[in-house]
Amino acid sequence: MNILVLGATGRVGSQIVTYALHDRHHVTVLVRSPKKIQINNDNLSIIQGNVLNKDDIVRSMYGIDVVISALNTDGTTTLSESMPLIIQAMENAGIKRIITIGTAGILQSKTAPNLLRYQSSESKQKSTRAAKEHHKAYDILKQSTLEWTIVCPTYLPDGEKAGSYRIGRNFLPDGGAKITVSDTAEFTYKQIQASDYIKSRVGIAY
């Protein structure tokens, strides 16, 4: 399978690249700084560019079967600004499947069903800036024709892969407090072969 990974230099994105290459998929990454990619593999194609540049996005989509976006917010609006460009390029290229990393804040609240978690008392986060940015990206994806899945981890420490965790469609599993980067990357990567959570957000936690 030909996989495009966006956000490949981040904590989750870099592990997704490793998983995909281990399984001998062909991986394309679009990165601003190629020297940050420390992997040497015949199945890895590195394209230097920016997700905010429409031409760079279009170039990176050539021959791709599935897109995984592990772009984070980083205090900017890159996530919400790049999503329309990604969707348009995918639709023009006939690519249907996209899996993205969100945040538990954009899952539905159990205490206030009409709200998302970050809008309710359920969220313990003092700042809602990142969640609002993920919310914008979610709204844009919902309006697309794509087969999207948004993986929504809660607190994301580094750590070993446990290989077992709880998942919930559109909700965070009860009492879920954390999930490691490794397990989040593994679950996200596995979605390239799965159709269980198409057009759904997925809460993931131990």
UniProtKB/TrEMBL annotation:
Record-linked Gene3D superfamilies: NAD(P)-binding Rossmann-like Domain
Signal peptide: none
GO function terms (MF aspect): oxidoreductase activity, acting on the CH-NH group of donors, NAD or NADP as acceptor
InterPro entries the record matches: NAD(P)-bd_dom (IPR016040), NAD(P)-bd_dom_sf (IPR036291), Polyketide_Oxido-like (IPR051606)
Ranges for domain NAD(P)-binding: 7-193
SUPFAM superfamilies: NAD(P)-binding Rossmann-fold domains
UniProt superkingdom: Bacteria
PANTHER family assigned to the protein according to its UniProt record, in alphabetical order: FLAVIN REDUCTASE (NADPH)
Protein name (database record): SDR family oxidoreductase
Organism: Mesobacillus subterraneus
